[in-house]
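Field reference: sequence -> structure
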Amino acid sequence: MRATLFPFQETALAELHEKIQKAHAYWSEKDPQVISFTAPTGAGKTIIMTALFEDIIFGHAYGVAEPDSVFVWLSDMPELNEQTRLKIESKSDKFRARDIRVIDSTFDAEYFAPGGIYFLNTQKLGSDKLLTQKSNLREYTIWETLANTARRQPKSFYVVIDEAHRGTFTSVQAEDKAQSIMQKFIKGSKEDGLPIMPLVIGVTATPQRFQKLVADTTSTIQKVVVPPEEVRKSGLLKDRIIIHFPDIAIGADMTMFKEAVANWKKKCERWDAYCDREEIKKPVRPIFVVQVEDGNEREITQTDLDSCIAVLEESLGRKLQSGEVVHTFDRHEIIKRHGLDIRKVDASRIEEDENIKVVFFKMNLSTGWDCPRAETMMSFRHASDYTYIAQLLGRMIRTPLAHREDSDAELNNVGLFLPYFDEKTVELVEQALQDSEAIVPAETGSHKELITLKRNPEFADVFSDMDLITYRIDSARKQPALRRLIALARALTQDMIAPEARKST
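Structure field:
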């Protein structure tokens, strides 16, 4: 792993290994096994699962390698699969790109190849008949591939159902269809020739979601739960959400947009100063996310994008460059506003593109979107969309460097600007955030209630004299010496540097 796990993540990983060992011991064709892995949004579920995959395939301190193991990751949206694939590639230093594959309509195999991670989405299994029906170009349906692999290697075949990132604003019909397809893996499907999968791991943010899937099954269900308070204590999440709204919600949109731009610009300056001071090799580049109104037959959005670009350029004191402003609208064409080309970008690609500074979107960022660089949000939508705004905000509370910044409290805040809200509707956002699957920061409130105290630069010498020698202690535990020794021995054996190292350790 390129990332060091936090203590609570190490604990969850160890519990998953324990539950898997029990599941394999109890498994029979008449007693399939299910593990429910519950962790709140922001806990790093994908990172924990990546570590689990590495341990199973390549071995770990307390278990031998099982290189023939196969993992199938099932979600209900292609974009979620792509984002998870990219995250696994970026966090794992053992899996190669060719080991991680998204199943498309051209996939045709009797079995899944050993040692691979395969991504599958319910849309491909529902509306796309190319995967599920035989033809002159297809020898095996995806159902046959799943069934053959499950029968050949029941104790080294893992189906992961991603319930944590289910589509939030899908229709009831689409959600029911996705759920019925996911249940085929848990209950089997005679009409498709699919047996019950031997081991299913359900990754979920709330246990209620996964309980709906496993209702009325004969499977043995074991549970692994990450406590929300452990995630909050880790420093992975921001301390405060500060919501800005006008005294009178009439004609305040562009005025508040200017305030939001100023907030984002201040965050950029403070992050630059912090990264320089701390000598961080990869500086944080804050992103300003702007939620716009829906469009009509003539306009892609009723929000005045020309004015938005003009305000941005005025605040920055320069012309924006192509690629600095992007959109995630349904249309794929480049939008030209105020002389600037605004290209379409997939949500999963935003975090990795450091050139992106501003993102315009409508309603498609809340589901599974992960971008710790998003520091300021402005919404041109009205109070009726408060639930969606809260769900999106719940995905913006992760700290960019995965720890709390003690030297500048401003960097631990998320700014939200709502020109069409008032005090009552802001309370609805706060309540919706409490009811969402995200872990709520310690403080959430309006700009009138939450104030960040700043140091007076005229007294910089006073503060410098008060500074004590400070050491940063990593909140992530170092691996025990025994585990590192066994991992080294395994690597020496696998690379044929010392073939007997594993046996003699």
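Note: The radius of gyration is 25 Å.
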